[in-house]
Amino acid sequence: MQFEPWIEERVLARQGVLHPYDQFDAATTAFVIVDLQNYYTQPGFQGECAPARAIFGQVNQLAAALRAKGGTVVWIKTSADGADQFWSHHHRHMLTPERSARRLRELGSGHAGFAMPPALEVLPGDLTVVKRCYSALAPGASDLDAVLKARGVRTVLIGGTVTNVCCESTARDAMMLDYATIMVDDALAAVTPHEHVNSLNNWMLFFGDVLTVAEVAERLA
């Protein structure tokens, strides 16, 4: 991703280099792929982010590269089971009654919306973590932090959808928990290019690095 000069100047002033990580130790690196379920990627579902289908190839490519080097691939899935209770504010006040009911139904763990599209290469050795709200690392949202720590992970690569909601929320919490955190530009998708770019601009300014799949692959050791 090409950043505007003023963003690069701010980043350079803060940390001295534009991209702080010359190399990633694959053994302590995880590719955390957020919400590429049918509900968020396929036509006919309420949460469809159509551009997400275009990143499947890049996601598969980076996952394969990291597996080949001995790294960890984690697929994050959202479940709305019980969300009308544990996330009641969101469902009662931030969604219309119709949208709330449809989200609860289509993201239920027994619904087709919860499943992963067959075009994604989810392998038996990969990990799957189910989360309850936007960030997989918010308190009580999932056991992702424990899963990563058990694997000795210190670097987190973020891909999936949507860039500016669940992906950015998870990434911010990862950074706050002291993981080196990288948003992977071409392995992320938002509903509009504007939202995607704005999210990554703000991320670069304050939270972590932004790299492409190719740039990450070059740094894997």
TrEMBL record:
Entry keyword Acyltransferase? no
Q: Which residues form the Isochorismatase-like domain?
A: 29-215
Keyword flag ATP-binding: no
Key words, A-Z: Hydrolase
| Stretches of the chain forming a coiled coil according to its record | none
What is this protein called in UniProt? Isochorismatase family protein
SUPFAM superfamilies, per the entry: Isochorismatase-like hydrolases
Record's Pfam families? Isochorismatase (PF00857)
Species this protein is from: Comamonas sediminis
